[in-house]
Amino acid sequence: MSSNSNASREATEQQAKESPVSESALETARRQLHHAAESLDIDPNIVERLKHPKRVQEVAVPIKRDDGSVDVFSGYRAQHDSVRGPYKGGLRYHPEVTRDECVGLSMWMTWKCAVMDLPFGGAKGGVAVNPKELSKAEKERLTRRFTEELREIIGPNQDIPAPDMGTNPQTMAWMMDAYSMQEGETTPGVVTGKPPIVGGSEGREEAPGRSVALITRLACEYYDRDLDGTTVAVQGYGSVGANAARLLDEWGATIVAVSDVNGALYDPDGIDTDSVPSHDEEPEAVTRDADTVISNDELLTLDVDVLIPAALGNVITQDNAADIEADLVVEGANGPITATADAILETRDISVIPDILANAGGVTVSYFEWLQDINRRAWSLERVYDELETEMERAWRAVQTEFERHDVTWRDAAYIVALSRIAAAHETRGLWP
Ligand code: NAD
After folding, report:
1. Which residue's alpha carbon is nearest to atom 5 within ligand 1?
2. What is the pLDDT of residues 120-174, one digit of tens each?
3. Cα–Cα nearest to 362, from 170, 113, 84, 102
4. How many CB atoms lie within 10 A of CB 375?
5. Which of 15, 132, 260 to mutate to test the pocket of ligand 1 (most atoms within 8 A of CB)?
6. Is the preceding peptide bond at 433 cis, omega within 30 degrees of 0?
7. Is the CB of 239 under 6 A from ligand 1?
8. 261 close to ligand 1 (CB < 6 Angstrom)
């Protein structure tokens, strides 16, 4: 596969977006498992089982390029734990996809599904390829062949992929078609995140940002903070950041800063979030008409009530954790705070609401999509919003209970909720044979 300096720089940036610098996704997932297990009376044999994925499928994916040559890419699907239901998790097309990264991220998905009490276990997969170097036709051929290579281990009752980095609703539509053609029946429930015309759910795209806003509102309520007059800074104005910022704005919060990769638009009197183009509407245009532009580093250390890092992983580190002025940090991105920074924020009494709860609206609406596909009946957008709100509130209450009972951080409380559900299911089912 060809590579150039641009592609490798992009790969490094994307990798930084998802994986902590100091440790791999797998190390982080195992560390969090041990940490949560310490607070609970769990059979160590169950913890040992959870350290290992049930299966990792590694496949070669050959495709014919548009010029007639053939390239072969490596693909993976890691399935971590299915004690509570079929595996669920994204598929990414990215040059840095590895077996270990898929395993670590599949474990995160297990915790995320369990904290939301969804009847799923965790999975993750992908193909080590730069999708920007493929034509649309090549991407379609890659997706169809990859689907065929995974066909034996995916399915609505086995493992249900979804879009992730480098894949999108069209990718899921091709997967659904490839699977359905080989199975001899239209099977929309094999993937989620499809376009609504082929069984996708209304409200799926904005769901992670919506859940970030809902959880921010619940956290503000918990700390007796009225959203009216609460100041918020949001890093990243993409799917997660823009949806969260606009909803909080609509609910009365004062959004004082939003940013993209070029910098942050800052207005202490409040930004009209609808007038700022999101990444999807117009990429990297946040600061174009701004009177006051500050850097992303400055945004993170603004003296605001709530900070929502919703762009990249590892933006709050040991270098800036002591300078964070917000009272509450809600993780919109995956892994925006390193483990060291997390410890510093804890000693400074800054509350951090973790990603596995805050941005879990995506997998929750994926669950709604799966239900709609199985029942062959689409829900209205209003119903999706209502049920998402109910599920987010339910998850919040469960985490709040453990937060108060164990006197731990919100992150630890979320992991305790997840692990106790998974461990109880293992205990109840037992070990076969
Ligand atoms: P996106 O591509 O829609 O938007 C990303 C935004 O971040 C853009 O505004 C971009 O300009 C900005 N950005 C990029 N690099 C930056 C930098 N160095 N400094 C500041 N801003 C920068 O992405 P998204 O889908 O909103 O995802 C954002 C984060 O949320 C990622 O960590 C992603 O993994 C996580 N997440 C996304 C979803 C989802 O379904 N979209 C679900 C859960 C978690």
Report:
1. 238
2. 999 999 999 999 999 999 999 999 999 999 999 999 999 999 999 999 999 999 9
3. 113
4. 10
5. 260
6. yes
7. yes
8. yes
Half-sphere exposure of 218 (CA within 13 A, CB side): 23
Cβ of 238 closer than 6 Å to ligand 1, yes or no, is yes
Final residue before a domain boundary, out of 329, 358, 387: 358
Is 44 contained in some domain? no
Q: What is the DSSP string of 400-425?
A: HHHHHHHT--HHHHHHHHHHHHHHHH
Angstrom distance (rounded) from CA 41 to CA 353: 24
Taking only the tens place, the pLDDT of each residue in 174-218 is 999 999 999 999 999 999 999 999 999 999 999 999 999 999 999
Mean pLDDT of all residues in the chain?
Answer: 93
Residue 123 in contact with ligand 1 by CB distance below 6 A? no
CA distance 255 to 49: 44
Specify whether 105 is located in the same domain as 149.
Answer: yes
Please count the other Cβ atoms lying within 10 Å of the Cβ belonging to residue 115: 24
Cα(346) to centroid(ligand 1), Å: 25
User: Structural domain tally of the chain?
Assistant: 2
- pLDDT (tens digit, 9 = 90+) per residue, 93-121? 999 999 999 999 999 999 999 999 999 99
269 shares a domain with 224: yes
CATH number at residue 103: 3.40.50.10860
What is the reported pLDDT for 13?
Answer: 41
Give me the residue label for tokens 């109840």: 428
Question: pTM for this one?
Answer: 0.93
Domain that holds residue 291: 206-358
Protein residue closest via CA to atom 15 of ligand 1: 261
Yes or no: say if 293 and 287 are a contact pair by the CB < 8 Å rule: yes
Which run of H or of E encompasses 16?
A: helix 5-18
In a domain, 310, yes or no: yes
3-state helix, strand, coil in the chain (%, to 5): 45, 15, 35
- Cα–Cα distance, 368 to 379 (Å, whole number): 9
Q: Which amino acid is at 85?
A: G
**Residue 330 sits in the same domain as residue 211:** yes
For tokens 């100091």, name the residue: 22
Amino acid of residue 177 = D
Tokens, residue 89: 């998790």
Q: Find out whether the beta carbon of 193 lies less than 6 Å from any atom of ligand 1.
A: no
Domain's final residue, options 125, 154, 186: 186
Tokens of 401: 């209970």
Whole-Å CA distances, 23 to 51, 77, 180, 278, 355 = 16, 21, 39, 31, 17
In a domain, 22, yes or no: no
